[in-house]
Write a structure and sequence with these properties.
The chain has two domains: about 270 residues, Metallo-beta-lactamase, Chain A (4-Layer Sandwich), CATH 3.60.15.10; about 170 residues, 3-Layer(aba) Sandwich (Rossmann fold), CATH 3.40.50.10890. The chain contains 14 helices and 21 strands. A hairpin with a 2-residue loop joins strand 17 and strand 18.
Protein backbone atom coordinates (compact mmCIF):
# COMPACT_ATOMS: atom_id res chain seq x y z
CA UNK A 1 0.00 0.00 0.00
CA UNK A 2 1.14 3.56 -0.71
CA UNK A 3 1.76 5.28 2.60
CA UNK A 4 0.31 8.63 1.64
CA UNK A 5 -1.40 9.62 -1.58
CA UNK A 6 -2.78 13.12 -1.50
CA UNK A 7 -2.60 15.62 -4.32
CA UNK A 8 -1.57 19.26 -4.06
CA UNK A 9 -2.09 21.49 -7.08
CA UNK A 10 -2.39 18.43 -9.27
CA UNK A 11 1.20 17.13 -8.94
CA UNK A 12 2.12 14.00 -6.98
CA UNK A 13 5.22 11.83 -7.34
CA UNK A 14 5.33 8.29 -5.93
CA UNK A 15 8.40 6.12 -5.43
CA UNK A 16 7.78 2.68 -6.87
CA UNK A 17 11.41 1.60 -6.67
CA UNK A 18 15.09 2.54 -6.16
CA UNK A 19 14.25 3.68 -2.63
CA UNK A 20 16.98 2.66 -0.16
CA UNK A 21 18.19 0.20 -2.82
CA UNK A 22 19.91 0.43 -6.22
CA UNK A 23 17.35 -1.58 -8.16
CA UNK A 24 13.80 -1.36 -9.44
CA UNK A 25 13.87 2.29 -10.53
CA UNK A 26 10.32 3.60 -10.99
CA UNK A 27 8.86 7.07 -10.35
CA UNK A 28 5.14 7.66 -10.88
CA UNK A 29 4.02 11.24 -11.61
CA UNK A 30 0.39 12.41 -11.50
CA UNK A 31 -0.09 15.83 -13.08
CA UNK A 32 -2.78 17.66 -15.04
CA UNK A 33 -4.95 14.58 -15.08
CA UNK A 34 -2.18 12.45 -16.62
CA UNK A 35 -0.01 9.67 -15.19
CA UNK A 36 3.65 9.35 -16.22
CA UNK A 37 6.11 6.64 -15.23
CA UNK A 38 9.83 7.48 -15.30
CA UNK A 39 11.86 4.27 -15.64
CA UNK A 40 10.43 0.81 -15.15
CA UNK A 41 13.14 -1.31 -13.60
CA UNK A 42 13.33 -4.81 -12.23
CA UNK A 43 14.20 -5.41 -8.58
CA UNK A 44 17.36 -7.51 -8.31
CA UNK A 45 19.48 -8.86 -5.49
CA UNK A 46 18.08 -10.33 -2.30
CA UNK A 47 15.03 -12.58 -2.33
CA UNK A 48 13.10 -9.90 -0.43
CA UNK A 49 13.73 -7.45 -3.28
CA UNK A 50 13.10 -9.96 -6.07
CA UNK A 51 9.73 -10.86 -4.59
CA UNK A 52 8.64 -7.23 -5.07
CA UNK A 53 8.56 -7.91 -8.82
CA UNK A 54 5.64 -10.27 -8.24
CA UNK A 55 3.58 -7.78 -6.24
CA UNK A 56 0.65 -6.14 -7.98
CA UNK A 57 1.49 -2.53 -8.91
CA UNK A 58 0.00 0.06 -6.51
CA UNK A 59 -1.85 1.54 -9.50
CA UNK A 60 -3.31 -0.27 -12.48
CA UNK A 61 -0.77 -0.06 -15.37
CA UNK A 62 -3.54 0.56 -17.90
CA UNK A 63 -4.03 4.00 -16.29
CA UNK A 64 -0.44 5.10 -17.09
CA UNK A 65 -0.36 7.48 -20.07
CA UNK A 66 3.35 7.25 -21.01
CA UNK A 67 6.62 5.70 -19.81
CA UNK A 68 9.89 7.65 -20.02
CA UNK A 69 13.14 5.64 -19.86
CA UNK A 70 16.56 7.06 -18.92
CA UNK A 71 18.66 4.12 -20.17
CA UNK A 72 18.58 0.43 -20.99
CA UNK A 73 19.90 -1.37 -17.91
CA UNK A 74 17.68 -4.07 -16.43
CA UNK A 75 17.13 -2.16 -13.18
CA UNK A 76 15.59 0.65 -15.29
CA UNK A 77 13.71 -1.27 -18.02
CA UNK A 78 13.38 -4.85 -16.79
CA UNK A 79 9.82 -4.55 -15.48
CA UNK A 80 8.42 -3.18 -18.77
CA UNK A 81 7.10 -6.53 -20.11
CA UNK A 82 5.38 -7.21 -16.81
CA UNK A 83 3.84 -3.72 -16.95
CA UNK A 84 2.52 -4.46 -20.45
CA UNK A 85 1.35 -7.89 -19.33
CA UNK A 86 -0.60 -6.17 -16.53
CA UNK A 87 -2.37 -3.80 -18.95
CA UNK A 88 -0.11 -0.88 -19.99
CA UNK A 89 -0.71 -0.04 -23.68
CA UNK A 90 0.75 3.41 -24.39
CA UNK A 91 4.10 4.74 -25.64
CA UNK A 92 7.52 4.03 -24.12
CA UNK A 93 9.91 6.91 -24.93
CA UNK A 94 13.72 6.79 -24.87
CA UNK A 95 16.76 7.52 -27.03
CA UNK A 96 17.17 5.27 -30.08
CA UNK A 97 20.20 3.36 -28.71
CA UNK A 98 18.45 2.90 -25.36
CA UNK A 99 15.50 1.25 -27.08
CA UNK A 100 17.85 -1.03 -29.03
CA UNK A 101 19.66 -1.93 -25.82
CA UNK A 102 16.36 -2.48 -24.00
CA UNK A 103 15.12 -4.87 -26.68
CA UNK A 104 18.25 -6.99 -26.31
CA UNK A 105 18.21 -6.91 -22.52
CA UNK A 106 14.52 -7.73 -22.22
CA UNK A 107 14.75 -10.68 -24.61
CA UNK A 108 17.72 -11.99 -22.67
CA UNK A 109 15.91 -11.47 -19.37
CA UNK A 110 12.85 -13.35 -20.61
CA UNK A 111 15.02 -16.16 -21.96
CA UNK A 112 16.88 -16.53 -18.65
CA UNK A 113 13.63 -16.49 -16.68
CA UNK A 114 12.12 -19.14 -18.93
CA UNK A 115 15.25 -21.29 -18.62
CA UNK A 116 15.41 -20.88 -14.85
CA UNK A 117 11.75 -21.81 -14.48
CA UNK A 118 12.22 -24.85 -16.72
CA UNK A 119 15.32 -25.94 -14.75
CA UNK A 120 13.54 -25.42 -11.42
CA UNK A 121 10.65 -27.57 -12.58
CA UNK A 122 12.94 -30.25 -14.03
CA UNK A 123 15.27 -30.45 -11.02
CA UNK A 124 12.50 -29.68 -8.49
CA UNK A 125 14.42 -27.14 -6.42
CA UNK A 126 11.62 -24.55 -6.37
CA UNK A 127 8.76 -24.60 -3.89
CA UNK A 128 6.47 -23.25 -6.64
CA UNK A 129 4.65 -25.92 -8.62
CA UNK A 130 5.05 -25.11 -11.37
CA UNK A 131 7.73 -22.39 -11.26
CA UNK A 132 6.81 -19.65 -13.74
CA UNK A 133 8.76 -16.80 -15.37
CA UNK A 134 7.80 -13.24 -14.47
CA UNK A 135 7.29 -12.72 -18.21
CA UNK A 136 8.20 -14.53 -21.39
CA UNK A 137 9.42 -13.68 -24.90
CA UNK A 138 5.89 -13.08 -26.14
CA UNK A 139 5.45 -10.39 -23.50
CA UNK A 140 8.72 -8.79 -24.63
CA UNK A 141 7.67 -8.80 -28.29
CA UNK A 142 4.44 -7.05 -27.32
CA UNK A 143 6.39 -4.50 -25.23
CA UNK A 144 8.68 -3.58 -28.13
CA UNK A 145 5.69 -2.45 -30.20
CA UNK A 146 5.24 0.42 -27.74
CA UNK A 147 8.81 1.75 -28.19
CA UNK A 148 9.20 5.25 -29.64
CA UNK A 149 12.60 6.95 -30.11
CA UNK A 150 13.26 10.57 -29.11
CA UNK A 151 16.08 12.95 -30.02
CA UNK A 152 18.47 14.53 -27.53
CA UNK A 153 18.18 18.16 -26.41
CA UNK A 154 14.68 18.79 -27.81
CA UNK A 155 11.64 19.69 -25.71
CA UNK A 156 8.79 17.34 -26.55
CA UNK A 157 5.20 18.15 -25.64
CA UNK A 158 3.65 15.14 -23.96
CA UNK A 159 0.36 16.64 -22.82
CA UNK A 160 -1.11 20.06 -22.13
CA UNK A 161 1.34 21.82 -19.79
CA UNK A 162 3.79 18.88 -19.73
CA UNK A 163 7.07 18.71 -21.72
CA UNK A 164 10.10 16.42 -21.58
CA UNK A 165 13.73 16.73 -22.70
CA UNK A 166 16.44 14.04 -22.82
CA UNK A 167 20.11 14.94 -22.18
CA UNK A 168 23.32 12.92 -22.71
CA UNK A 169 24.46 11.27 -19.48
CA UNK A 170 27.45 9.04 -20.26
CA UNK A 171 27.22 5.80 -18.22
CA UNK A 172 26.25 3.44 -21.07
CA UNK A 173 25.44 3.90 -24.72
CA UNK A 174 22.11 5.73 -25.07
CA UNK A 175 21.94 6.83 -21.42
CA UNK A 176 20.21 10.13 -20.62
CA UNK A 177 18.89 12.15 -17.76
CA UNK A 178 15.35 13.42 -18.07
CA UNK A 179 14.01 16.95 -17.57
CA UNK A 180 10.25 17.01 -17.09
CA UNK A 181 8.61 20.42 -17.20
CA UNK A 182 5.13 20.53 -15.67
CA UNK A 183 3.29 23.86 -15.69
CA UNK A 184 6.65 25.65 -15.70
CA UNK A 185 8.23 23.59 -12.89
CA UNK A 186 11.34 21.61 -13.92
CA UNK A 187 11.76 18.16 -12.40
CA UNK A 188 15.07 16.39 -13.14
CA UNK A 189 15.54 12.63 -12.95
CA UNK A 190 19.24 11.82 -13.03
CA UNK A 191 18.97 8.20 -14.13
CA UNK A 192 22.45 6.71 -13.75
CA UNK A 193 25.21 9.28 -14.13
CA UNK A 194 28.39 8.40 -16.01
CA UNK A 195 32.05 9.06 -15.28
CA UNK A 196 33.84 12.30 -16.12
CA UNK A 197 36.81 10.45 -17.66
CA UNK A 198 35.35 7.24 -19.07
CA UNK A 199 37.27 5.19 -21.63
CA UNK A 200 34.14 4.60 -23.74
CA UNK A 201 31.68 7.41 -23.04
CA UNK A 202 31.84 11.19 -23.26
CA UNK A 203 31.41 13.11 -19.97
CA UNK A 204 27.77 13.51 -18.91
CA UNK A 205 26.04 16.82 -19.50
CA UNK A 206 24.84 18.75 -16.46
CA UNK A 207 21.41 20.15 -15.62
CA UNK A 208 21.11 23.94 -15.55
CA UNK A 209 17.83 24.12 -13.66
CA UNK A 210 16.05 21.79 -11.27
CA UNK A 211 13.13 22.90 -9.14
CA UNK A 212 12.97 19.30 -7.97
CA UNK A 213 15.94 16.95 -8.32
CA UNK A 214 16.06 13.16 -8.12
CA UNK A 215 19.68 12.04 -7.99
CA UNK A 216 21.15 8.55 -7.88
CA UNK A 217 23.60 7.58 -5.14
CA UNK A 218 25.00 4.19 -6.15
CA UNK A 219 28.49 5.31 -5.15
CA UNK A 220 27.43 8.24 -3.00
CA UNK A 221 29.69 7.13 -0.15
CA UNK A 222 33.02 6.73 -1.97
CA UNK A 223 35.47 8.10 -4.49
CA UNK A 224 36.70 5.64 -7.12
CA UNK A 225 40.41 4.90 -6.79
CA UNK A 226 42.78 5.87 -9.56
CA UNK A 227 45.13 3.47 -11.31
CA UNK A 228 42.46 0.82 -11.95
CA UNK A 229 44.22 -0.16 -15.17
CA UNK A 230 47.46 -0.88 -13.31
CA UNK A 231 45.58 -2.92 -10.72
CA UNK A 232 43.84 -4.90 -13.46
CA UNK A 233 47.15 -5.52 -15.23
CA UNK A 234 48.80 -6.73 -12.01
CA UNK A 235 45.87 -9.05 -11.23
CA UNK A 236 45.99 -10.61 -14.71
CA UNK A 237 49.75 -11.14 -14.47
CA UNK A 238 49.46 -12.67 -11.00
CA UNK A 239 46.76 -15.10 -12.16
CA UNK A 240 48.81 -16.03 -15.23
CA UNK A 241 51.83 -16.76 -13.01
CA UNK A 242 49.64 -19.27 -11.13
CA UNK A 243 48.83 -20.87 -14.50
CA UNK A 244 45.19 -20.10 -13.78
CA UNK A 245 42.03 -18.98 -15.55
CA UNK A 246 40.42 -15.60 -14.84
CA UNK A 247 36.63 -15.40 -14.77
CA UNK A 248 35.18 -11.88 -14.97
CA UNK A 249 31.42 -11.49 -14.45
CA UNK A 250 30.53 -8.52 -16.63
CA UNK A 251 27.50 -6.36 -17.29
CA UNK A 252 26.61 -6.93 -20.93
CA UNK A 253 26.00 -3.26 -21.67
CA UNK A 254 29.13 -1.06 -21.60
CA UNK A 255 31.03 -2.96 -18.89
CA UNK A 256 31.90 -5.97 -21.05
CA UNK A 257 32.77 -3.70 -23.97
CA UNK A 258 35.00 -1.63 -21.69
CA UNK A 259 36.73 -4.73 -20.33
CA UNK A 260 37.27 -6.08 -23.83
CA UNK A 261 38.76 -2.78 -24.98
CA UNK A 262 40.88 -2.24 -21.86
CA UNK A 263 42.34 -5.76 -21.69
CA UNK A 264 42.89 -5.77 -25.46
CA UNK A 265 44.85 -2.50 -25.17
CA UNK A 266 46.89 -3.84 -22.23
CA UNK A 267 47.70 -6.91 -24.28
CA UNK A 268 48.72 -4.81 -27.30
CA UNK A 269 50.95 -2.70 -25.05
CA UNK A 270 52.47 -5.94 -23.70
CA UNK A 271 51.71 -4.94 -20.11
CA UNK A 272 49.87 -8.25 -19.59
CA UNK A 273 50.88 -11.76 -20.77
CA UNK A 274 49.77 -12.99 -24.16
CA UNK A 275 46.85 -15.00 -22.78
CA UNK A 276 43.75 -15.75 -24.89
CA UNK A 277 40.68 -13.65 -24.16
CA UNK A 278 37.14 -14.97 -24.52
CA UNK A 279 33.91 -13.01 -24.36
CA UNK A 280 30.86 -15.16 -23.63
CA UNK A 281 27.62 -13.22 -23.57
CA UNK A 282 25.09 -13.35 -26.42
CA UNK A 283 23.65 -10.09 -25.16
CA UNK A 284 27.04 -8.35 -25.12
CA UNK A 285 27.67 -9.57 -28.69
CA UNK A 286 24.46 -7.86 -29.76
CA UNK A 287 25.49 -4.68 -27.91
CA UNK A 288 28.70 -4.60 -29.99
CA UNK A 289 26.48 -4.06 -33.04
CA UNK A 290 24.86 -1.07 -31.32
CA UNK A 291 28.32 0.47 -30.81
CA UNK A 292 28.85 0.17 -34.57
CA UNK A 293 25.46 1.73 -35.39
CA UNK A 294 25.67 4.65 -32.96
CA UNK A 295 29.31 5.75 -33.20
CA UNK A 296 28.36 9.32 -32.20
CA UNK A 297 27.37 8.05 -28.74
CA UNK A 298 30.85 6.75 -27.73
CA UNK A 299 34.57 7.53 -28.07
CA UNK A 300 36.12 4.36 -29.52
CA UNK A 301 37.39 4.69 -33.12
CA UNK A 302 35.58 2.07 -35.19
CA UNK A 303 38.87 0.85 -36.65
CA UNK A 304 40.11 -0.08 -33.17
CA UNK A 305 36.72 -1.50 -32.27
CA UNK A 306 36.83 -3.81 -35.28
CA UNK A 307 40.40 -4.91 -34.57
CA UNK A 308 39.49 -5.67 -30.96
CA UNK A 309 36.55 -7.85 -32.00
CA UNK A 310 38.81 -9.86 -34.32
CA UNK A 311 41.44 -10.45 -31.63
CA UNK A 312 39.01 -11.58 -28.90
CA UNK A 313 37.31 -14.96 -29.19
CA UNK A 314 33.53 -14.41 -29.20
CA UNK A 315 31.76 -17.48 -27.83
CA UNK A 316 28.41 -18.16 -29.47
CA UNK A 317 26.69 -21.42 -28.57
CA UNK A 318 26.13 -22.89 -25.14
CA UNK A 319 27.98 -26.02 -26.27
CA UNK A 320 31.08 -23.84 -26.73
CA UNK A 321 30.59 -22.45 -23.21
CA UNK A 322 30.55 -25.93 -21.68
CA UNK A 323 33.59 -27.01 -23.71
CA UNK A 324 35.56 -23.86 -22.83
CA UNK A 325 34.76 -24.22 -19.13
CA UNK A 326 36.28 -27.71 -19.18
CA UNK A 327 39.58 -26.60 -20.75
CA UNK A 328 42.44 -26.09 -18.29
CA UNK A 329 44.75 -23.73 -20.20
CA UNK A 330 45.23 -20.18 -18.77
CA UNK A 331 42.72 -17.76 -20.23
CA UNK A 332 40.57 -14.74 -19.51
CA UNK A 333 36.81 -15.25 -19.78
CA UNK A 334 34.47 -12.26 -19.62
CA UNK A 335 30.89 -13.49 -19.28
CA UNK A 336 27.47 -12.17 -18.30
CA UNK A 337 26.02 -11.37 -15.86
CA UNK A 338 27.83 -8.67 -13.89
CA UNK A 339 26.58 -9.62 -10.43
CA UNK A 340 26.56 -13.37 -11.20
CA UNK A 341 22.78 -13.47 -10.81
CA UNK A 342 22.34 -15.51 -14.00
CA UNK A 343 23.71 -15.98 -17.49
CA UNK A 344 26.65 -17.98 -18.78
CA UNK A 345 29.08 -16.88 -16.08
CA UNK A 346 27.36 -19.38 -13.79
CA UNK A 347 28.64 -22.26 -15.94
CA UNK A 348 32.19 -21.02 -15.44
CA UNK A 349 31.69 -20.43 -11.73
CA UNK A 350 30.45 -24.00 -11.33
CA UNK A 351 33.71 -25.18 -12.90
CA UNK A 352 36.20 -22.74 -11.36
CA UNK A 353 34.98 -21.70 -7.90
CA UNK A 354 36.54 -24.82 -6.42
CA UNK A 355 39.83 -24.38 -8.35
CA UNK A 356 42.60 -22.79 -6.20
CA UNK A 357 44.52 -21.61 -9.29
CA UNK A 358 41.53 -19.72 -10.70
CA UNK A 359 40.70 -16.05 -10.13
CA UNK A 360 37.20 -14.58 -9.97
CA UNK A 361 37.54 -10.89 -10.77
CA UNK A 362 34.76 -8.48 -9.75
CA UNK A 363 34.81 -5.20 -11.64
CA UNK A 364 31.46 -3.49 -11.04
CA UNK A 365 28.78 -2.77 -8.48
CA UNK A 366 27.57 -5.86 -6.61
CA UNK A 367 24.08 -5.39 -5.20
CA UNK A 368 23.12 -6.74 -1.81
CA UNK A 369 21.96 -10.36 -1.95
CA UNK A 370 23.69 -11.24 -5.25
CA UNK A 371 26.31 -13.96 -5.73
CA UNK A 372 28.78 -11.25 -6.68
CA UNK A 373 28.19 -9.44 -3.39
CA UNK A 374 28.56 -12.70 -1.48
CA UNK A 375 31.91 -13.35 -3.18
CA UNK A 376 32.98 -9.78 -2.49
CA UNK A 377 32.21 -10.23 1.20
CA UNK A 378 34.24 -13.45 1.45
CA UNK A 379 31.57 -16.15 1.24
CA UNK A 380 33.03 -19.64 1.75
CA UNK A 381 30.48 -21.27 -0.53
CA UNK A 382 28.13 -20.14 -3.29
CA UNK A 383 24.79 -21.66 -4.25
CA UNK A 384 24.16 -22.17 -7.97
CA UNK A 385 21.05 -23.95 -9.27
CA UNK A 386 20.33 -25.52 -5.90
CA UNK A 387 23.88 -26.81 -5.32
CA UNK A 388 26.62 -25.35 -3.11
CA UNK A 389 30.18 -24.81 -4.39
CA UNK A 390 33.11 -24.22 -2.05
CA UNK A 391 35.04 -21.04 -2.89
CA UNK A 392 38.71 -22.01 -3.32
CA UNK A 393 39.44 -19.61 -6.17
CA UNK A 394 41.04 -16.23 -5.50
CA UNK A 395 38.48 -13.41 -5.50
CA UNK A 396 39.77 -10.03 -6.68
CA UNK A 397 37.84 -6.77 -6.59
CA UNK A 398 39.07 -4.19 -9.10
CA UNK A 399 37.59 -0.84 -8.13
CA UNK A 400 37.58 2.20 -10.36
CA UNK A 401 36.15 0.52 -13.47
CA UNK A 402 32.53 1.29 -12.65
CA UNK A 403 30.33 3.11 -15.15
CA UNK A 404 28.69 4.95 -12.24
CA UNK A 405 29.85 8.39 -11.09
CA UNK A 406 31.46 8.42 -7.66
CA UNK A 407 30.62 10.85 -4.88
CA UNK A 408 32.78 13.68 -6.24
CA UNK A 409 31.43 13.22 -9.76
CA UNK A 410 27.85 13.21 -8.48
CA UNK A 411 28.52 16.47 -6.65
CA UNK A 412 30.15 17.96 -9.76
CA UNK A 413 27.17 16.91 -11.89
CA UNK A 414 25.01 19.27 -9.81
CA UNK A 415 27.44 22.19 -10.10
CA UNK A 416 25.70 24.10 -12.92
CA UNK A 417 22.24 24.22 -11.31
CA UNK A 418 21.73 27.97 -11.08
CA UNK A 419 19.34 28.19 -8.13
CA UNK A 420 18.77 25.94 -5.15
CA UNK A 421 16.21 23.21 -5.87
CA UNK A 422 13.07 23.31 -3.78
CA UNK A 423 13.46 19.61 -3.08
CA UNK A 424 16.24 17.07 -3.59
CA UNK A 425 15.60 13.34 -3.34
CA UNK A 426 18.56 11.00 -3.09
CA UNK A 427 17.59 7.61 -4.54
CA UNK A 428 19.07 4.53 -6.23
CA UNK A 429 21.53 3.75 -3.44
CA UNK A 430 21.86 1.62 -0.36
CA UNK A 431 21.13 3.54 2.87
CA UNK A 432 24.77 4.27 3.77
CA UNK A 433 25.56 5.57 0.29
CA UNK A 434 22.46 7.77 0.16
CA UNK A 435 23.16 9.21 3.60
CA UNK A 436 26.76 9.99 2.69
CA UNK A 437 25.69 11.80 -0.48
CA UNK A 438 23.06 13.81 1.41
CA UNK A 439 25.74 14.91 3.87
CA UNK A 440 28.09 15.85 1.04
CA UNK A 441 25.41 17.87 -0.75
CA UNK A 442 24.81 19.78 2.48
CA UNK A 443 28.55 20.34 3.00
CA UNK A 444 29.25 21.56 -0.56
CA UNK A 445 26.06 23.41 -1.48
CA UNK A 446 24.26 23.93 1.80
CA UNK A 447 21.20 22.19 0.34
CA UNK A 448 18.97 19.84 2.30
CA UNK A 449 17.90 16.56 0.73
CA UNK A 450 16.04 13.43 1.75
CA UNK A 451 15.82 9.73 1.00
CA UNK A 452 12.29 8.42 0.41
CA UNK A 453 11.04 4.97 1.35
CA UNK A 454 9.41 2.56 -1.07
CA UNK A 455 5.87 3.65 -2.07
CA UNK A 456 6.18 7.06 -0.39
CA UNK A 457 4.53 9.92 -2.28
CA UNK A 458 5.36 13.62 -2.33
CA UNK A 459 3.34 16.70 -3.17
CA UNK A 460 4.77 19.52 -5.28
CA UNK A 461 3.58 23.10 -4.93
CA UNK A 462 3.33 25.23 -8.07
Amino acid sequence: MIKKMTTYNNITISFWGASETVTGSKYLIKANGKIILVDCGLFQGSKKLRLLNWDSPPLSPEKINVVLITHGHLDHVGYLPRLVKEGFNKKILASAPTLDVAEIILKDSAHIQEEDAERANREKFSKHKPALPLYDLRDVEKTITHFSAVALNEWITLFDGIEVRYKYNGHIIGATFIELKINGKTIVFSGDIGREHDLLMEPPEKPQQADVLFIESTYGDRVHPEHAEEELSAAITEAFNRNGTIIIPGFAVERIQLLMYLIWKLKKQKTVPDVPIYMDSPMARAILDIFYRYKEWHKIPLTEFGEMCKDIHLVEKMEETVALAAKTHPKIIIAGSGMATGGRVLTYLQQYLTNPSATIMLVGYQAEGTRGRNLLEGAKEIKIYGKYYEVKATVKNIEGLSAHADQQELINWMSEIKTQPEKIFVTHGEPEASKALRNKIKEVYGWDSQTPQLYDSIELKL
